[in-house]
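Thanks for the sequence, V.! I ran MFS transporter right away. Repeating your input here for the record:
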Amino acid sequence: MANAISNDTQAAPLVTPSPTSGRIPRRQLASAAVGNLIEWFDWNAYAFLSIYFATQFFPKDASPLVALMGTFGILAVGFLVRPLSSLILGKVSDLVGRRFTLLITVYGMGIGSLMIAVAPTYEQVGVLAPVLLLLARIIHGICIGGEYGAMSAFAMEIAPQGKRGQIGGMLNAVAVLGQIFVVVLVLGAAWILPAADMVEYGWRIIFGIGAALSLAGIWIRRGMKETAADHSSGDKPGLFTAFAKHPRQAVQVVGLTLGFTAMVYVWGSYMPAYAKTYGGLDPKYGMIATLVSLVAALVGALIAGPLSDKYGRRKTMLAAGVILAGGTIPAMGLISDSLATLMILQSAAMLVLALLQASSMAAYCELFPRKVRASGIGFPYSLTVALIGGTAPMVGTQFAAWNIGGAFPWYVAGLMAVSVFFYATMKETAFKPLPE
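Predicted structure:
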């Protein structure tokens, strides 16, 4: 594998300048998008399938709630390795190239999913079972941590002026398509297989499909052209150069991400478990609501991208932030065992979140120059996602165990309110070229 990646790097085309024409380089965009779809398929499969395989990796005498908490805890550990990997792989992306980094990440995602697909259960190997699950999620976390900064930098560097938001929206739509694919597979398996079979082996099939899809991501990304800065002559930035020279921008990435990531993981992937825990809704119906909401998110991302280019990052992010901060508490208070209610609320939330998702990728990239862009974005973004987004399902489940579930919507809305402050005070960057 190492030789294959090394050979790919040596064969990579030379650095290409940012396009000035209005035409989107579709082949380059496809390289980022399809790999992104596959990686987010693998990443989200864990969250969507956790309610089925949780009891397989913990003692049989543990309650389902305890097993689910343990599974979400391992999910959170996967997030916690993301900041370090984003720092290191972000620097690799800035120095060696976006293409090399994005090949590493898609290789790793396939390996992690294959490990989960064939992992033994607690009954078979005891404590080794959750250890192997943890190791697979650490590999996923490392790859996703390096993916976001490198992929965002690459995508915005190939984007023509005035279309960065549109490309950001398209990439988010493709990522949502990966999630939709997961949900369709989970729903199909849940309806076809008896519940006992879904718990026993149904979830393994889906992780196996994710591992197989990674091969397609590798093949497509081998054709990427390089966009990273050329450091062959001149000083090479160090590991912390981006933060030493651009501390205000790094803090701004944290502030812009804080509430955004909480909302994404609560409304986007935690809702089936939340509706089951707090409303008693059957997980299969929760997945139906999630599927409908993801379709809304896909359509919303395609619409929100051009809106971000037309009206600017500040206005679109501020509008979405205010709606989410003010609407989350009453909306989550309405969730019960009603599929229709959950479907409407979750779809509405995902439509609003599309404004943030389409704008954020471009907004982050517009803060940093090319030579430190991937590392400058990756570390503060991944750190915030790890501490806030990755822990949101575990916090919600723990609040239920403590019988203070009513506090969870306030927790999420409070985080969003902090981000609203950053949206309101950010400078508009949509109408200027990327910093070089």
